[in-house]
Amino acid sequence: MKGSAVGLFFCLWGWPATLWAHASAFVLAKCSPAESGEVSLELTVDYRQHPILTGQEAAVAALREVLQVETPQGPVPLETIVSGTVRFETAMDPDLPLPREPGEAETSHALAVVRYQWNPEVREVKFSVPRGNPHDVLFWLSGKARAPGEPAPWRILIAGDTTPPIPLALPVAVERNLALRWGVALGGMGLPLLAVLLIRRRLALSPGRKTA
């Protein structure tokens, strides 16, 4: 199946639980934008059940390379933007947008998690899987990107796939900086115009100038 065929966002309403047996075959990617413009990205893999990543070291190394950030200059590895923090868990994220198997709550997993958190200072962000990367990614949105009570928007990403743009709020400091820049620019255009108007008014009020 081509990447474009699996590259659409879906919601899991009405999908049979038998479609997805479990999440162990995927790298899990949870993206949580915040109102401040900050974005959190948690990458998780079960290295006990994953068919390729079978140890902590291999799992963490793969998580650091599985996604990149799209920029106007091209894709950038996450680790060049911010260093991810590593932790290990035994319970799946309850926010995971997959149907639960019977007994899942009691199942103990071996999860490696790498968390990235930073402020992109842009209005939207996109992630992609590098070409040639062997790992499939289950990517979903959380935080302010999801309406309360609504199922999580998600998609499967394979090598070469890119997420749709994810809207972010600009931080207040950046908004103020942009406002200042606009103010300076408008002021720069307005001052010459004001000077011209003042000169014209002074000439009009000059005693030596004839009036009709």
Summarize the structure.
With 212 residues, this protein is α+β, with helices and mostly antiparallel strands.
What report would you give on this structure?
The structure is a single chain. With 212 residues, this protein is α+β, with helices and mostly antiparallel strands. It folds into 2 domains: 3-167, no CATH class; 171-212. The protein is built from 4 helices and 11 strands. The strands form 3 sheets. The protein has a 6-stranded mixed beta sheet with strand order 5-6-2-1-9-10, with helices on one face. A 3-stranded antiparallel beta sheet has the order 4-3-8. Strands 7-11 form a two-stranded antiparallel sheet. Residues 1-21 and 174-198 have low confidence and may be disordered.
How much beta, percentage-wise?
A: 15-25%
Coarse structural class: alpha+beta
Question: What is the tally of beta strands?
Answer: 11
Number of separate domains: 2
Query: How confident overall, as mean pLDDT?
Result: 75
- Give the helix tally: 4
